[in-house]
Amino acid sequence: MNNDIFPCLWYDGDARQSAEFYCSVFGGEITADTPVVMNIDLFGQRIMLLNGGPQFKKNPAISFMVICETEDEVQKYWDELLEGGMALMELGSYSWSSKYGWVQDKYGVTWQLFLGEKISDQRIVPTLMFIHQNNGKAKEAMELYTKTFPNSNIGNILEYGAGSEGHGQTEPSENVQHGHFVIDQYSLFCMDNSYDHQFDFNEGISLVVMTDDQSQTDHYWNALTGDGGRESMCGWLKDKYGLSWQIVPKRLIQLMNDPDQERAYQVVQAMMKMQKIIIQDLEDAYHS
């Protein structure tokens, strides 16, 4: 499992309460605690919580599949996550799992709780929903992502097949009902959905990729912004499907956490002016 790739959840001031909540539900711990950024560890996996402001709301275009080993575990998470939240698919027995439910918690994060076989040590798997103009592009996206990252592969793909329905809509038979893929040892799921949902990919939930050097940073940046993607600020980008990524050199974090506050501040100021992060320019700011 790779902890250099992890999800980031956007908050408007309530990241800390949310971090404490998830740690209590899943038995995790807070590993970084600043006014802007919180990191938590759940089942050995890193999740970042960012107090970014009111601009973006989290939504079910990216949900989190939690693979559970017992019915009791599914029930516990369901009961705790449902408090103040809402059920998107009622907890019950389905063709794909004898105990499954989809819940949106009080912080706007959606969880699919699933009794089933583990695919790896990774217990929480981000699940991407390809809807609206992206519907039918899940396979294409898996190919782009697995081509971009090393140690990647496409796993099992279940197509909808003839006459199948998703949310009461008839889905094209070749569309992906459930797909599994791995980018640099980090597992994700994806699905196509033709329902006209009131949400889509946005910055409310993004994927962070920590890079070792400039060439890796450039490679991911170019591959993901190419062919219709968009550069944003401070290492953020949107790929051609509108999925948000943060391409973050590890050196940036080291410099921002430097005990010399003045130097760290210079680095942050330099970073704020960048789209893609240029490590040398950060070093220059640090030494200025």
Automatic annotation (TrEMBL):
<dbReference type="Pfam" id="PF06983">
    <property type="entry name" value="3-dmu-9_3-mt"/>
</dbReference>
<feature type="domain" description="PhnB-like">
    <location>
        <begin position="4"/>
        <end position="113"/>
    </location>
</feature>
<dbReference type="InterPro" id="IPR028973">
    <property type="entry name" value="PhnB-like"/>
</dbReference>
<feature type="domain" description="PhnB-like">
    <location>
        <begin position="122"/>
        <end position="248"/>
    </location>
</feature>
<protein>
    <submittedName>
        <fullName>VOC family protein</fullName>
    </submittedName>
</protein>
<dbReference type="InterPro" id="IPR029068">
    <property type="entry name" value="Glyas_Bleomycin-R_OHBP_Dase"/>
</dbReference>
